[in-house]
Amino acid sequence: MTYRPATPDQLLAISVNAGIAEIASHPRFAAAEPDMVEAIAEGIGALAAGEWAPLNRIGDTQGARLENGVVRLPEGFAEAYAAYVEQGWNAISGPLEAGGQGLPYTLAVNVLENLGTANMAFSLLPMLTVAAIEALEKYGTEAQKALYLPRLVSGAWPGTMNLTEPQAGSDVGALRTTATPAGDGTYRIAGQKIFITWGEHELAENIVHLVLARLPDAPAGSRGISLFLVSKYRVNPDGTLGPKNDLRAVSLEHKLGIHASPTCVMAYGDNGECVGELVGRENQGLATMFTMMNSARINVGGQGLQLAERATQQALAYARERVQSARAGSPDKTPVAIVEHPDVRRMLLRMKALTEGARALLYYTTGQVDRATLGDTAAQSRADLLVPLIKAWGTDIGMEVTSLNIQVHGGMGFIEETGAAQLYRDARIPPIYEGTNGIQAADLVTRKLGLEGGAAFVALMRDIAADAGDSPALAELARSCGQIGEWMLHDASLDDRLAGSVPFCTMCAVATAGWQLRRQLRAVEGGEAPGIAAAKRVTVKLFLERIVPEALGLAASAKAGAELLYSLDAEQLAG
Length: 575
Known about the structure:
The chain is an alpha+beta fold. It is built from 20 helices and twelve strands. It has three domains: 148 residues, Acyl-CoA dehydrogenase/oxidase, N-terminal domain (Butyryl-Coa Dehydrogenase, subunit A, domain 1, Orthogonal Bundle); 126 residues, Butyryl-CoA Dehydrogenase, subunit A, domain 2, CATH 2.40.110.20; 133 residues, no CATH class. The strands form three sheets. Strands 3, 4, 5, 6, 7, 10, 11 and 12 form an eight-stranded mixed beta sheet that branches. α14 packs antiparallel against α15 and α17 packs antiparallel against α18. The longest helix is centred in the middle third of the chain and has 37 residues. The protein starts with 6 loop residues before the first helix and ends with a helix.
């Protein structure tokens, strides 16, 4: 399957949308100089293309398997992960005191973008570790940080998130896993978790699980949840590994896609001896876990981009090679490559524009996260506002672009051997996990719209409208988003807000992505990224003239309200 790192467009997005030069002007991130940024993007691109991408197909066809309690991966995965760790890629944004490089989060996301484009299922392993580091750095005790952070930061010990249970999916407050104080400062964890990504494997000597559980007499619902660190092996004070903890992978899920990522059912405390440590305060586990979830949601949005990038590259390669029919209206009846046919060209340019728009939005979001890390409260509010946009729209783009890739391939796209089907199958999970896209849209209209009394959202849309320049459709879209947001905040019922949340979320994401693409275009016109300048002019024009007006057409759905949705009762709806 064709793959080459999209380094020029990544560097443009890091420069323009993240604003890496401004971030690097702060002493904390001073090492993020242009040469360093370029070296990181090129270096991780080389590792991804050379060692991770060749495993993508074998990972899909062979997948992870459970044998006598041990999860096995196909040949080559252990070596590829070892190379990733040895070269220091996991440590890019890790804290200096734990052996990390202390570089901006933006650059850590670039590492994951390259790895995920090469091999999305495999990239879930380091993605969750990055999230675990953030939670432990913020809420862990000094002893926990000293013992676990250096090994998580290096990647020697990867991390996981354990939220979901059979009866507690999106409703995390319904979980039943228990944590009983042992009298020595530790707890005994007992329960079962499902959908645990990379919950068990042999690619590393240890795994650090972060597990939500309920203390005795804890308040009901989400107010009574605490977070615990549960190591696969018990860890001695000097960091050496002791006996295996009382936990195991019960089974692996048989999934539509991401076959190389072991999705485990995990059992804790079969024998009553699963040792865990409290992370953060009692009954504050959900807030603590949200530190991980926000990072994961941004990176899942990035997965939509990754799959779209890979699909676009594959479609372009196939369209240039596949010869089929003469071009309509041409006096020359010689068959041409399908890239010459108007509808194929339409699909290819749409794929390219959507992919680049998702990348612009992703790095704009990471740039705001980095500014928030430096103490910018306005950037924190904007980052919080952008998280549901990149997660929901980014993963929707992954679905659309991988579907278009199959369409470009025609009947061959439906055949597994081409690899187009794998990308489409893999793309179906990002809109679901880390909070479904419906939950992201609900988060936008119930929580994020009200940030700073609504001022954060108003400021974003005003910035877009003011900077729309010669794109009246973009300015109109920003104003429409602002008007709908005002209605949702002050006049709409909760049901009406939720009924319109998904189209509204799409509108806001397209507006922000279009704005960020316009910023890229200005940079290109000023001489930046000359190698992709000609293509960038066309893809931005297509996004602003075709994709932005489509988003404007969603306004009616965003304001339609919930009444029609409930005009049939459940029995009538089913009958």
